[in-house]
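Side project, low priority. Logging it here so it doesn't get lost.
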Amino acid sequence: MSERSRLEEILKAGSLEEILGTAVPYPKEIELKGRISRSIIEELSKIKNEPEWMFRHRLKALELFEKLPMPKWVVGVEELDLENLVLYTKPELEKEVKDWGDLPENIRKTFERLNIPEIEKKFLSGLTAVFDSESVYSQLKDEFEKKGIVMLPMEEAVRKYPDVVKRYFGKIFPAGEHKFSALHHALWSGGAFVYIPKGVRVPFPIEAFFVIGSALEGQFEHTLVVADEGSYVHFIEGCSAPMYKGFSFHDGMVEIYAHKNATVKFTTIQNWSRNVINFNNKRAIIEENAYVEWIEGSIGSKITYTYPASVLKGNNARTAQYVVSLSNGPFLKDTGAKSVHVGKNTSSKIVSKSISANGGINIYRGLVRIGKGAKNSTATVSCDSLILDEESRAYTYPHNQNDEPTANIIHEATIGKLSEDKLFYLNARGIREEEAKSLIVLGFISEILEGLPFEYVEVLKKVIELEFSEVGGVG
C-alpha cells in the first residue's frame, strides 16, 4: 500500500476510536483530580521531581487563577466543570522512550494508526509525542544532536537546563495574562523544549504531537522554542483526541524567543474531536532582524480560543500570521492574531480565513498595536470570511492602535456567501454538493496552503474534504 493510500485509509476511518476499532482503556499509573488547590500542585510537582523554583512558579500561578475573573470574551464553557476533570494523567510507563517498540501496545498503536512514526522517519528532524499529560516518546536524529540542537520534554529541560529555562519560561506569556493562562502555568505538564544554537539551520521540521486519550481530561502541555542568533527552525504541532461522551479540556501554551537574525516557523494542525474545549496560548518575542511565522489550522473541537501573538521587539523584526478556522456544525471558533510593534522599521502581516457551515460560528478577534517610537513600521491585516449557508455566522472584532505618526496600518475585511450559481455550475459538471463545498473551501485558503510542507498540505486537504463528506470529520 502506498504512503498516500495509507494516509487516506487512516483519515477515512473517522474519529480516533474508529481508527482503533474501539476506545480501549489503557493502564494509568497516576491520576490527579478534584478541586484545584495547593495540595494538587504539591502532588504534581512531587511527581515531576521539580526544583523548588518551578514549584514556587506554580503556586504563584495558582494564586492568580483564584483571583482573576473569567475573561469577558469567553462564552460557551458552561459544560466545563474543572473539578470533575482529571488534571493530570500519567500512563503506565516507566519513562519516556526513544523507540516506538518500547511503548505499551495500545499507546503505540494510537500513534501508528495516525501514521506518526512513518512521518517521523521520512520527513522530520525530531519528534516529541505527548499522550495525556506526559511525553511518552522523544527522539532527535543524531546528525542534529551533534550540531548542538536540544530537543527534550519540558520536564527534563527544567531539571537539565534550569538557567536557560528560567530565562524564558513564563516570561514570554506570563501567568497573569488571564484566568486560563494562570491555570496553565499552575498545572502545566508535558510539552517540548527546543533550543537551536547560533547559526544552525535545521533543514527538516521538528514536530510535537499531542493526544488526549480519555474523557473528562485536562491537557496542559507547554512548548518553549528558543532560536539563537542567525538560526532557523520549523516546528510543527499536531493535536488529536477521540470522541467520548464527556468533555475534555485543552489549555496549552507555546512560547517562542527569536534572537537576532533568527527565523522560526510554527505550524499548528489542530483537529481535536468535537467534545474538546480548546485554549491555545501562543506568543513570540522577536529581536532585531528576526522573523517569526505562525500558521494556525483550526479544524476540530467544540470551542476554540486561539490568537497567535508576536511582539516585534527589535528593529527590523518581522512576523506573518496565517489563521485558518473551520466551524462546520454548531461549534464556535474564536480565533485571530496579535501584533505588537516596539522596534523601528518592523512589519507584521495577518491573514485570517474563516469558514462557517451548518450553523457554525466564527469570530475574528485581532489586535495590532504600534507603540510610539516604532518609526516607519507597517502592519497589514486581511480578514476574509466564507459563509456556506443561512444558519452560519461570522463576526469580526479588530482592534488597531497606532501611536507612531510615521507608521501605517492597513486593514481589510470581506465576508462572502456560497452562491447557488457556483454550486449549480459544479453540480452540472458531475461534482456532488459536498465535494463542491470542499473544493471551494480549499480554493479559499490556497494562499495559506502554499506555505505548508507538501505532506501536511495533503493531510489538511483530506481533513477538509472529510469535513464535508458523509463521514463528517475526524478526531
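Brief comment: The first strand starts at residue 28 and ends at 33.
Revisit when time allows.
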